[in-house]
Amino acid sequence: MSECPLHAPVSIPADGTPVRPSPELARWRAQGPAVPLRYRDGHEGLLITRYEEARAVLSDPRFSQQPQRMPDSHAALVERVPPGEVDEEIAEAARLSNILGCDGAAHLRLRRAITKRFSARSARSYIERVEEIVEAAFGGLLESGSPANLTRVYAEPISAQVHAFVLGIPEHLVERFTDVYVRGAPLQVQHDLLREAIAHRREHPGEDVITDLLASDLSAAEVLGMMHTLSMSGRDTVAYFIVTAMVALLSDRSQLEALAADPDRIPAAIEEIVRYGTMFLTVFPRTALDEVELGDRIIPAGTTVSVSAVSANRDERRWGSSADRLDVHRDAQGHLAFGDGAHMCVGQQVARVELAVALRRLITGLPTLRLVEAEQLTPQPLAHPVATYEAGSLVVGW
Ligand code: HEM
Fold it and tell me: What domains are there in the chain, each with its CATH number?
């Protein structure tokens, strides 16, 4: 690698919060588009910190998602299910349906099997059901009384129930689905629940992801594995953003008031909210298959590269001197909160609809809402294996 401005490789900084990311990131951006990064298994790669270069890496097929160099990456872990902990089909399912750990035609085949129910059009068709789910959660919040833990009473139930609805988890299994995927359970228990859901949909097809998967060319093990990946991907991401948005808005009431005065702005403001509160400090690591020229540097073949979506979304070169401010009137199109390129988030359109409905109900329904305490206001351990922030508890009063 040429002209590396830092000698010692850095580690992912743990001193930031979603609304106030580590100052190290800005320092590294000032020095160049990338810094050497020490991964947890000891090997050295690169952390991309600037927006232009981050985007270039995410959209370049010469960066592979296969977990070649990353023994402890998520992609590798997904494929290395501990022997004896699960039955054989689950181990096979994990290996075959690892959408975040494959490239090219193999990746496209998996992705095509699931995209229909996550399109912008499908997402719009869910609005009525999402509003019902949000209304019920809002009722639950009022009933629980002030102060309340918004994460547990509002954000998590909305996220889990909308997710279950889109996937096609039958009504009688939704509560268990929420339990095993939001609160956590052994892999075998999670997969056994998914098997029940899949068996039900085989008998009772619907307009949902499971029904589409059953009609696709995916094998039974691939269907099971894909359902597990999807269940994991959507279980906490939307809840995180409901919480982060409210932490940000309640910490800067001028922005909250701007949205309260003009709630029709909320859907457009979602882009800025997810830019500002980006969850993925790093997205899933890539490996350079060839030597790649990136700006003024040469990345040798075989280098592991991680893109910091948080850093790119705060890059002053792209977002100007107010990059560190939440501005609900900003045009934040092009942010990297959902990634970019071939692996860009499948669930983003559904997430946008869900966030807009959930935030609107809170902002218009509880004008006196105030922040009592939030774990997000102080640095919390990052979720592994990719470095992501977590929702944490958010206590609000009204
Ligand atoms: C606000 C909520 C969400 C955020 C911020 C988010 C973020 C992301 C990001 C950054 C990636 C790309 C990772 C990479 O390139 O390394 C991704 C991929 C993905 N997301 Fe999301 N996500 C969200 C919600 C969802 C939901 C609701 C689903 C639904 C199941 C979902 C399913 C997926 C899947 C399947 C992928 C892998 C796509 C592929 O490899 O082709 N996400 N997400």
Answer: 71-276+327-397 (1.10.630.10)
